[in-house]
Amino acid sequence: MAQIIDLVSTNKIISHPTWDIVAIFVFLIIGFFYGLWAGRTKLIAFLISLYVSGFLFENFYYLTKLVKGGSIIERFTFETIIFTLLAIVLTILFAKLLEPQFESGPKNWLKSFLISFSSIGLFFSYLFHILPAKEAFTFSPLVQNLFASNSAFFWWLFIPLIVLFWTK
Questions:
Q1: Distance of alpha carbon 60 from alpha carbon 69, whole angstroms
Q2: Which SS3 state, helix, strand or coil, does residue 17 take?
Q3: Spatial CA neighbour of 151 closest among 125, 133, 114, 123
Q4: 52-98 pLDDT tens trace
Q5: Euclidean distance between CA atoms 133 and 44, whole angstroms
Q6: 3 phi/psi in degrees, rounded to 5
Q7: Is 34 in contact with 120 (CB distance < 8 Å)?
Q8: Which spans in the chain are helix H?
């Protein structure tokens, strides 16, 4: 009987996923495929660009004037686009400054995935921390604790640095 209930619960989650499940699933998928697609140089450039983008975005004086008015969803969407474009432009610039890494083998794959997941985790944490995601959406305690809380934001700022220095 317990197995039937678990199957029913699983079926409900799969057929009507909550924002929480979608956020975690997107985090895992993006982390995996970005780790496969991008080389270590692009991954490191993206990680560095996230730190710089976060600093620039939080101190962008004209942002409030650009997003004045509109609903919270419109503001969230617009700010997400601005932050993402800033991160992409800086990633391209930083990738040109870094020397390419041509290592291969299982250890390099592990390093790439660690950099990828920590970068995507930092990106998601930025979305929850500096953008109005908490105002626009309601998330479960799992996602709140994993990405949206102040302590999670600190750890997502700290962990990628450790990963970066460990994988270099």
A1: 17
A2: coil
A3: 125
A4: 999 988 888 777 777 777 777 777 788 888 888 999 999 999 988 88
A5: 26
A6: -65, -35
A7: yes
A8: 2-15, 19-37, 40-58, 63-66, 72-97, 106-129, 133-136, 141-143, 150-167
- Location of structure tokens 């962990």: 159
Q: What CA–CA distance (Å, rounded) separates 99 from 74?
A: 39
Each domain of the chain, given as residue ranges in start order, spans 19-167
Structure tokens at 34: 């970005």
DSSP, res 68: -
Which stretches in the chain have pLDDT values below 50? 1-3, 5
How buried is 108 (Cβ within 10 angstroms: 0-12 exposed, 13-18 middle, 19+ buried)? middle
Task: Say if CB 126 and CB 54 are below 8 A apart.
Answer: yes
Does the pTM surpass 0.85? The reply is no
